[in-house]
Design brief:
The protein is of the alpha/beta class and 488 residues long. It contains 18 helices and 16 strands. It is globular and about 70 Å long. The N and C termini lie far apart (55 Å).
Length: 488
């Protein structure tokens, strides 16, 4: 009999704890997550392919508290529980592991996800209760863990003698041995061909529970997918990808992505897709082929993506729009060149302005991400960022506080150039205060000033009104206004 594997995203309130909204987008339905956690979806489909019984539980999507989450997970009668976490979710994941261990110490608990990939050397210190944690591509590792435990778990759910020793030889995982000491990580080679993996187990998600952030979708229902792993640039000092165990960039073939879009539309009835890739336009030939196939195969779907703007021409963006692109997100970060250079963004203010100009000429909505509180930033730099963002011609601007993640170059720099407020990933709270500021309230006021000055300009309101062409557009801007009021 195959053992039961339950894959879990931990309970956490994204809207209030991360994004800082003062109320839910819908008081009737308390949506806490804006898109499905696809990492465990890939693992689920890979295990199902090998005939394992798999359940997928997204506690945040259900708005469950810790006790509700534990009860729902244990109700699946799992032999193995795999929990995913980004760094923001790590404390919730650790708490969930501790509670599950209290309820049933025989269940084998595995932690994975982006947080482990960039922080694997110290997970055993932060959460010694976990039985194993997986770094790198998790599909093959989780399969091998399941295969060993399938043979090593007795009828009472206990591990047979020698099972831990077999697990300890696996690549890509650190195992807690019987003496409580964790094994040393032996790196696993990354998958070169992502098409070897089946599509995420979309049928296991409760898609109706996900509600996109107001700026992320114009046509509902909306969903998300990913076409690549890693980052094709990988130099930004603030990004956790810079600390990943492996940095290799890989991408699904265009044929595979088109097939998955068609599948996803059938399952979710989605009219729009947001691509989660860190940089969508990395290989212009791939993007051209992708767009041409969407057009030739008459795949009707609106979509948006995040990207660097190097290599994006008027011609390419025009083709992307023709294929359904309506919005693109750029990491512009700052209005001061010396700060961009310090975080190794690799672009100039002039190039950023030209990229936004091209998007406006093509007629693609453009969103700019900006960071406040970078090391070395002065109040004058912050005002430069506000003024720069206002004059660019953006449809939306998103201002976030700098969060120095451990195991990044930025974290090391910040250690000597300011004050840390540890374990704070809330976008509305200061995580790091540069030494150029006297107190966090000063930085807070500048960031709040940015939101007010950008969105309450008469010229911005007029820009939005001019773009209203339908009831759907009106609904979109109404949702945006509602969320802005909830934020400020």
């Amino acid at each position: 009999m195959k053992i039961q594997v339950t894959l879990v995203a931990p309970p956490i309130n994204y809207q209030t704890s991360l994004y800082g909204f003062k109320h839910h987008f819908s008081k009737k339905n308390k949506y806490h997550r804006n898109q499905p956690p696809l990492g465990i979806g890939y693992i689920a489909s890979y295990l199902i392919k090998h005939q394992y019984n798999v359940s997928l539980i997204d506690c945040a999507a259900h708005s469950w508290n810790m006790q509700q989450s534990v009860d729902a997970i244990l109700a699946t009668k799992p032999n193995i529980i795999g929990i995913t976490a980004i760094t923001f979710e790590s404390e919730a994941a650790y708490s969930l592991i501790r509670e599950l261990k209290k309820k049933n110490h025989n269940i084998f608990l595995v932690l994975g996800g982006a947080h482990v990939n960039s922080n694997y050397p110290k997970i055993h210190i932060e959460c010694p209760e976990v039985d194993a944690f997986v770094a790198g591509d998790g599909e093959m590792t989780m399969l091998e863990i399941s295969q060993i435990l399938e043979k090593g778990i007795d009828r009472d759910g206990k591990l047979a003698e020698g099972t831990i020793e077999k697990l300890a030889n696996l690549r890509g995982v650190r195992i807690r041995k019987n003496d409580g000491i964790f094994t040393t990580l032996i790196e696993r080679e990354l998958l070169d061909d992502l098409d070897q993996l089946p599509s995420p187990a979309y049928h296991l998600y409760h898609h109706h529970l996900y509600k996109p952030l107001p700026h992320r979708a114009k046509r509902l229902p909306s969903t998300s997918m990913i076409t690549s792993r890693g980052c094709s640039y990988g130099l930004c000092t603030y990004c956790e990808l810079s600390g990943l165990i492996k940095k290799s960039y890989r991408r699904h073939s265009v044929d595979r992505v088109i097939d998955e879009i068609i599948l996803l539309k059938k399952i979710t009835f989605a009219k729009e897709i947001y691509f989660q890739d860190d940089i969508f336009v990395s290989d212009t030939k791939w993007v051209e082929d992708f767009c041409n196939q969407l057009i030739s195969k008459n795949v009707s779907i609106s979509w948006s993506c995040e990207s660097r703007f190097k290599g994006i021409s008027f011609e390419l963006l025009s083709l992307m729009k023709k294929a359904g692109l309506w919005r693109i997100y750029y990491g512009l970060e700052s209005g001061s060149q010396h700060l961009l250079d310090k975080i190794k963004k690799g672009h100039t203010l002039e190039e950023a302005a030209e990229a936004v100009n091209i998007a406006n000429k093509v007629g693609v909505d453009i969103v700019g991400f900006f960071m406040f509180g970078l090391p070395g930033e002065t109040p004058e730099d912050a005002r430069n960022t506000i003024n720069f963002s206002k004059k660019l011609g953006l449809d939306h601007a998103i201002y976030s506080f700098t969060v120095p993640h451990p195991n990044t170059e930025l974290y090391s720099i910040c250690k000597s150039e300011g004050t840390f407020f540890e374990n704070n990933y809330h976008y509305r709270k200061v995580s790091f205060l540069p030494s150029t500021y006297k107190k966090s309230e000063e930085l807070q006021k500048l960031r709040d000033k940015a939101f007010r000055e950008f969105y309450l300009r008469p010229s911005y309101v007029y820009r939005c009104i001019k773009k209203i062409r339908s009831i759907g557009d009106l609904s979109y801007y109404f949702r945006g206004l509602n969320s802005l009021l909830g934020y400020i």
